[in-house]
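Here is this case:
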Amino acid sequence: RIRQSSLGSYDICGRRFQYDQESQVYNGGSARALGTAFHAGMELYYDPDTLSMTVEDCHSWAMQVFDDTAALKPSHASEFTKTAGEFFWDTKIPDADTAYQLLDTMLNAVIPANVWPEDYTVLAVEPSFEIPWKNGHTLNGSVDLVLENDGWIYSVDFKTAGRMWARGKEDARKNAQANMYTYALQQLYPDAKGIVFCFDIVT
């Protein structure tokens, strides 16, 4: 089972990739928990079954997800087979109150802005995929948001960052995620005019 984070590890170091695959413990920090919580708030907002949710609703849910992640409750498929390790507070997010305030700021910045116009139809929120790949491996992952406009499929990935991304960081030659997810969506939506991969970055 190969995820985009695994390919990213391999790009950096083959030994790191091996350790990631063999690790039986998962750890966590407050920066990662913040990202997971923000994703949860955005998922609730875009879910077609919960379109009446307000920013306050999304914030309340995001805070709950932050608390669960800080308690090292599994949030990714790979974590359910591993043992919880340790949680640590990052320098910029030293406590839960700081995290709650950041979540409020980010969600209030993104949701009212209506980044994706109404003519972009939500097809799926957090759909998972498992696609046969090479040498018996499968590509596994989940897409934050899938949109459709005029026959084109848009794969949207939410990112949280402590500072503005360096120019070119999103380039497909430097980031395996765009390549992997575009390939996956080509298999899932073979009749689409084309696939567009987008990073929605909140700094």
About this structure: The first strand starts at residue 25 and ends at 29. The chain has six helices and eight strands.
